[in-house]
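Postdoc handover notes: sequence design on the structure in folder B. Input tokens:
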């Protein structure tokens, strides 16, 4: 089985060409289109890319070539030959960086909101990786060519502190701390809605959303689900909103956003889990977030999710001493707090 198509641009994953990947359709996959099944099974690839692979003869169902719209049955064996991913490294770009700390081993940066961490489909420039490649001559290569120095990540619209490794040994040592959960991470969030409790530990498994491939969901007993724990503490309460300190105990994709939405208090302006991407000053002053007041002038107060990685505490991999990095609250979130505080008086 072979397929002739060029490497795909997916940014952060590499696959060997002509090496078959075997998948089996489960009972929950019965009746699903082949392209949809592959998109859920291979989330690093877009459905458009996978349709190209199917069209080029790179996918067999029960040993036979088929079409994109083929409907699967339980037990169907799907064999896929994936082309190699484009593994070109980020192009260095002279993008200003807010450096919180730097020595010969590690760097701590304050990532601004709106910046993608590493190159990926649709985001080949303007990334943190491109900025790091310009400003630093030496960065670890453990994460691959598209992730120089990148040990962990933040969502595009989440701001805050990230730790970067300059050398491979430092990268491995830092990654082990994240994997073993010995780091302490603290986030700040503003929620749409007020949690019932002052503080609590949310322990709910997180897996792929059953219908929307870009989302995660509370999902027990699924093959993609993993246990997840998040501690939160309400630091300020407003009418319809809250300021929350969040300490994730695990590091699942979208964990804080999913768990806060599960409480009925999604992160403010989190379009994916809260349903809206922006809020005006008038809406904040009116003390509700579902519709603008009559006198709202429409001036935006926030146009990204109100989530900030405030602090990371870990053991310095070079000297074994504890070290802490703190990223100050950005101006847009500070502005929201100022409006909420003035409205509550």
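Designed sequence:
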């Amino acid at each position: 089985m072979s397929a002739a198509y060029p490497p795909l641009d997916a940014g952060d994953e590499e696959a060997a060409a002509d090496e078959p990947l075997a998948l089996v359709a489960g009972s929950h996959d019965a009746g699903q289109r082949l392209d949809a099944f592959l998109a859920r099974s291979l989330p690093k690839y877009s459905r458009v890319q996978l349709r190209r692979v199917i069209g080029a003869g790179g996918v067999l169902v029960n040993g036979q070539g088929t079409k994109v719209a083929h409907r699967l049955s339980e037990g169907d064996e799907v064999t896929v030959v994936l082309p190699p991913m484009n593994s070109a490294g980020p192009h260095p770009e002279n993008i200003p960086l807010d450096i919180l700390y730097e020595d010969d081993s590690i760097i701590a940066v304050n990532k601004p909101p709106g910046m993608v961490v590493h190159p990926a489909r649709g985001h080949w420039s303007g990334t943190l990786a491109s900025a790091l490649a310009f400003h630093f001559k030496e960065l670890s290569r453990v994460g691959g060519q598209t992730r120089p120095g990148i040990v962990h990540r933040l969502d595009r619209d989440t701001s805050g502190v990230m730790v970067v490794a300059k050398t491979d040994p430092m990268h491995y040592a830092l990654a082990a701390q994240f994997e073993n959960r010995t780091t302490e991470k603290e986030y700040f969030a503003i929620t749409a809605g007020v949690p019932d409790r002052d503080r609590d530990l949310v322990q709910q498994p997180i897996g792929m959303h059953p219908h929307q491939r870009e989302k995660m969901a509370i999902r027990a007993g699924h093959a993609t689900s993993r246990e997840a724990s998040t501690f939160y503490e309400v630091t300020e309460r407003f009418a319809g909103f809250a300021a929350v300190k969040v300490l994730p105990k695990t590091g699942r994709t979208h964990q804080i956003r999913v768990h806060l939405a599960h409480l009925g208090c999604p992160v403010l302006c989190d379009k994916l889990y809260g349903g809206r991407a922006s809020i005006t000053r008038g809406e904040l002053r009116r003390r509700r977030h579902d519709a603008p007041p009559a006198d709202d002038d429409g001036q935006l107060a926030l146009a990204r999710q109100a989530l900030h990685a405030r602090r990371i505490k870990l053991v310095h991999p070079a000297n074994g001493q504890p070290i802490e990095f703190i990223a100050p609250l950005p101006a847009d979130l500070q502005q929201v707090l100022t409006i909420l505080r003035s409205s509550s008086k």
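Context for whoever picks this up: The radius of gyration is 22 Å. Don't rerun without checking with the PI first.
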